[in-house]
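Take a record.
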Amino acid sequence: MAQAPALPAGFELPLEARLPRIGAVDAVALEERAASLAKRSIKREAKVLALLLAIRTTDLTTLEGSDTPGKAAAIASKALRPDPSDPSLPSCAAVCVYPNLVPAVRERVAGTSVKVAAVATGFPSGQYPTAVKVADVRATVELGADEIDMVIDRGAFLSGRYAKVYDEIVQVKEACGDAHLKVILETGELGTYDNVRRATLLSIAAGADFVKTSTGKIAPAATLPVALCMLEAIRDVYEETGRRVGFKAAGGIRQAKQAIQHLVLVHETLGSEWLTPQLYRLGASSLLNDILMQLRKERTGAYQSGDYFTLD
């Protein structure tokens, strides 16, 4: 098995000397395991629990140039109460928006369990100077964000400037203060599973609280093999160091069936300890309605028209 290039000097320090070696990813084995786990069948009772868990771990997201404070507030209301006709349903984990819409979301979810997440650091390209990225994060936190979703500089990463990517994450993490940091790899642009694993470990070493697959703007995004590759890196770090790092799958997850497949991946790779909003998230915009329709079917035996649910 070929050995991956060495990391920059000092890379291992945040995880002391115990950071798992990068190594090379066995693509065939990875894809076969992901495909096998995707075929797992679960009983009706477990399916309902999985759908409820998917709601609890969803970052309900709107990241369009046409977003308004009114739309952000409406999304926040839906995150709080996904189906107004069924108060037994849990709230979503967070609402993810652009920084200038943080106040509108903050006002709507104040005093609840729903977190306010915002993208920053030149989302979605990441092609901004480091000083601008850091200032962006500080301003977003000051606006009231609980969580920051940053993007790595893929140009720097792909050209082998790992130290630059690492240093930026370190500076952004510091700028976050008490806010949690999710580091977006944009796996659709990384090219190989080896790069996905390397970027995951680099982000963790630099201080990421979560690692996230994608911005949702590039395809392919949160494919099952890519998610499994990142989850195995998280598992290896935990086994080596005892440090738990969260995972967020985002981009292209639009159906309840896909959400359940991702939950199975997490359960089989990291265990039930990770199946909480504190360590797992699904980034989605259109997924929630399909989950609501599937839940209605499981409870009533009949599909409910999508017209009965608000559009996200």
Observations:
- Residues 1-18 have pLDDT under 50 and may be disordered.
